[in-house]
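pls design
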C-alpha cells in the first residue's frame, strides 16, 4: 500500500475566464519550478503567434479554466482540507506552461497541446522530454490517476518514471461502449471524490458511487497491475 499521497493529472479546458488580477507571468511564481526555463521559452513564441496577449494578467489556474470538468469539480465548494490536498496532488497538463498546480498563476490563452508553433513543432512532442524528469519526480512511489485525453497524454513519457501504480479510467454505458460526450463531466466528479475521500489505492473504487450513476465494473477492470485500467459502467 503506498504511503505517499496520489498524483492526479487532468487536462486544461478550452473554456477560460478572461482577464485576471495577477501580475504578468514571470519565473518563480509556480510550483514545479524546474519547468520555468521551458515556460519562459514557450511564452514569447506563443505571444508572437497571438495565443497569449502581451503583458497578459494572470489568475489561479483553478479559476482560469472553466470547462465542464472544472464545473463538476466545483473547487471552491470543496472542504478546505480537500482544497489544500488538491493544491499538492493535482496537476494540469498545459500546452503553454507544462504542468500547472491549481493555485499557479495562468494568463488567458488559446493554445492546444496539439498545436504547432514556429520553432517547436507539435507542443506535445516538444514538452514530452522536458516534462519527463519533473513528472518522474512527482510520480515516484505514488498512485497516479491519469485522467488525460490522448492529446495531453502524448506529452507524458512514463518510460523512466516509477509510480506505485498508474491508473487510467474509462466510462462506458450499459452496453460497454465508451462514453465520450460526458467524459469530462464524469471525470470532474471523480477528481472531487479522490480529494474528499482520500483513497489509498485503486481498489477503493469499489465503494465509489458516481453521482451520474456509474459504478466500478471489476470484471472489465485491471486493478492489480502497475498500469491499472478502471472501467466505470453506467447502471
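designed seq:
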Amino acid at each position: 500500500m503506498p504511503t505517499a499521497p496520489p498524483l492526479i493529472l487532468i487536462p486544461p479546458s478550452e473554456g477560460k475566464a478572461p482577464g485576471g488580477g495577477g501580475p504578468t507571468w514571470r519565473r518563480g511564481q509556480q510550483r514545479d519550478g524546474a519547468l520555468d526555463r521551458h515556460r519562459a521559452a514557450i511564452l514569447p513564441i506563443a505571444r508572437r503567434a497571438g495565443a497569449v496577449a502581451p503583458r497578459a494578467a494572470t489568475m489561479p489556474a483553478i479559476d482560469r479554466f472553466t470547462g465542464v470538468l472544472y464545473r463538476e469539480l466545483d473547487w471552491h465548494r470543496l472542504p478546505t482540507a480537500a482544497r489544500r490536498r488538491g493544491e499538492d496532488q493535482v496537476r494540469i497538463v498545459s500546452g503553454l506552461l507544462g504542468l500547472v498546480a491549481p493555485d499557479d498563476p495562468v494568463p488567458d490563452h488559446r493554445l492546444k497541446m496539439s498545436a504547432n508553433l514556429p520553432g517547436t513543432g507539435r507542443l506535445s512532442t516538444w514538452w514530452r522530454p522536458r516534462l519527463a524528469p519533473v513528472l518522474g519526480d512527482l510520480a515516484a512511489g505514488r498512485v497516479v490517476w491519469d485522467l488525460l485525453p490522448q492529446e495531453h497524454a502524448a506529452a507524458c513519457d512514463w518510460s523512466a518514471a516509477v509510480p506505485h501504480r498508474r491508473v487510467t479510467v474509462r466510462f462506458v454505458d450499459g452496453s460497454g461502449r465508451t462514453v465520450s460526450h460526458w467524459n469530462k463531466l464524469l471525470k470532474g466528479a471523480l477528481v472531487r471524490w479522490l480529494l474528499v475521500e482520500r483513497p489509498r489505492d485503486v481498489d477503493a473504487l469499489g465503494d465509489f458511487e458516481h453521482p451520474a450513476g456509474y459504478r466500478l465494473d471489476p470484471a472489465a477492470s485491471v486493478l492489480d497491475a502497475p498500469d491499472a485500467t478502471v472501467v466505470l459502467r453506467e447502471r
